[in-house]
Amino acid sequence: MKKYDAVVIGAGNGGLVAAVRLLQGGAKVLLVEQHNLPGGFATSFRRGRFEFEASLHELNDFGTKDNAGDVRVLFDELGVTDKIDWLEIPEAYRVISREEKLDAVMPFGVEEFINKMEHYVPGSRDSVVKFFDLAEEIRLAQAYSSAVNGKTDSSVMVSKYGNFVRCGSYSVNEVLKTLKMPKKAVDIMNAYWCYLGAHCDDLSFVHYASMVNRYIKRGASMPKSRSHEISLAFIERIRELGGDVLFNTEAVKILTDEKDGGVSGVLLDDGTEIVTRHVVANVMPHVVFGRMMDKVPLDEIKAANTRKFAGRGYTMFLGLNKSADELGIENHNYFLYDTMDTVKQYEMMKKIKDNSVQATVCLNRAYPECSPEGTTMMYFTTLFMEDDWANVTPRDYVKTKESVASRMIDRFEQDTGARIRDSIEEISIATPMTYARYCGHPEGVIYGYESQYWDGLMPRLQMMAEDHKIRGLRFAGGHAMRLSGYSSAYFSGDISGRQTVGDIKREG
Q: Partner of 135 for a Cys bridge, out of 113, 123, 213, 489, CB 3.0 to 4.6 A?
């Protein structure tokens, strides 16, 4: 039987980073991926003349060589930055909401963002400045927590990051109210909320402010060859460092030691047993504990079942046979809402018939050459906050998914004035059923576990040590301690990889 210091299950964003970190720490590592390509959601696919990005709208906090963000610093440390051809996204977002008759285009750059907000909402400057000051302290506190593998010194947290500690248990709306931010400014500031899949009465301010700051402070980036380019760069780096990679191979069981219940090996789908005492699982805990382990501590089962599934994904991909200029598509990143009352909007997103929200990207506005000359490529994403797709019968499935797609097109045309329906050359649709089938996520969840008061970013980071119940098993990815999103998944892999290196070294 083959023996490894650690096995990483799943070549998603978190698993890829964890594998590199383990190898850099001197471990002998096997990465196991059930698909024939790496990346999980970080991939691309072709339809006709178009190569579509599967999931990434933009990667935040990357920055440039002269103004590097935390993600770029991480990629530099991992040795993958220069393997990827990067491009910069031109603007932050355009947010349109019908109830408030809101239509605002916001730039990257903190000062530029503050000035534009003051233009839209005179008198908002002071509160928005305070928001970004607080958000930057949150970023620094997170960097400190990551640097010490979550073993933070409470005296350091209070003395250096006191405001981070004070706002840690509050929601987005509670803190913005305390900052006395005008309502219209709150509406514009909260545009990104659908990226995290929780409404702003529930969503942790720490989590949301961290994300907004990472976008606005250093802008957003995109690999020219889609997120698949990032995934391939990581595989190349893993092999450079001597790691082994198995594609088309499913890890079906995590084997445990009868004495302490800890990890003793991994069983592959061809019957091969890998001996190891350490696993980093880029797999949802519901799947690990429900299918992959025979004996699971009751506390782990309770913890998983207590958590709430975040959004179930639906994405429509369009290849259009006219240029963005001809179609009237002006921006790269759109948020289209019925209302900026996020609680009300969240409720509407529970049912297929009521959900009109979309986060839509026209990649040509950032990278004109992403599709053939005279064409345009778009992708439209929404979330469903309950498992309403389970109520769709097989007979009605195609009709339902096409109905949602048609509504998305109508809504985009009505809200932006663009005309796209008559120029569709290619269309592809992914529903929650698609994500459940290809990614193995229950109910087609694409955002892991929802960020809630008791289960937000700060509680998860602070409870990492206490939450580690099974010797040798750690998690990475959108369901782990950093919650959902590309950068969060990368950072979770960094944390779990370094923690596992420490575990291995302590065992001698």
A: 213
**The residue to which tokens 């990614």 are assigned:** 439
Residues with Cβ < 8 Å from 121, sequence gap 6 or more? 182, 184, 185, 188
Query: What whole-number distance in Å separates Cα of residue 176 and Cα of residue 184?
Result: 12
- 3-state SS, residue 42: coil
171: which residues sit within 8 A by CB, 6+ positions away? 200, 201, 202, 203, 204, 205, 453
Is the pLDDT assigned to residue 453 strictly greater than 90? Answer: no
194 alpha-carbon distance from chain centroid: 11
Cα–Cα separations (whole angstroms), residue 399 to 233, 242, 356, 395: 39, 49, 17, 8
The average confidence (pLDDT) of the chain is 96
State the Cα–Cα distance between residues 18 and 490, nearest whole angstrom: 8
For 169, the 3-state DSSP assignment is coil
Answer whether residue 469 shows pLDDT above 70.
yes
pLDDT score recorded for residue 149: 67
- Has this prediction a pTM greater than 0.85? yes
pLDDT, tens digit, for every residue of 127-177?
Answer: 999 999 999 999 898 888 878 867 788 898 888 998 988 888 899 999 999
Q: Angle at CA 385, nearest 5°, toward 316 and 310?
A: 95
Report which of residues 343 and 153 the model is more confident about. 343
User: What's the per-residue H, E or C state across 193-220?
Assistant: HHHCCCCCCCCEHHHHHHHHHHHHHHCE
Structure tokens at 321: 């046979």
* CATH topology assigned to domain 6-43+64-85+224-308+451-507: FAD/NAD(P)-binding domain (3.50.50)
Give every CB contact of residue 433 below 8 A, 6+ residues apart in sequence.
389, 397, 444
Which pLDDT band holds residue 461 (cuts at 50, 70, 90)?
Answer: confident
pLDDT tens digit sequence for 282-315: 999 999 999 999 999 999 999 999 999 999 999 9
Q: What does the pLDDT read at residue 483?
A: 86
Question: Domain residue spans in the chain?
Answer: 6-43+64-85+224-308+451-507, 108-218, 311-446
> 247: buried, middle or exposed (CB in 10 Å: 19+, 13-18, 0-12)?
middle
Q: Which DSSP string do the residues of 259-271 spell out, in sequence order?
A: TT--EEEEEETTS
List 3's β-bridge partners, or say none: 275
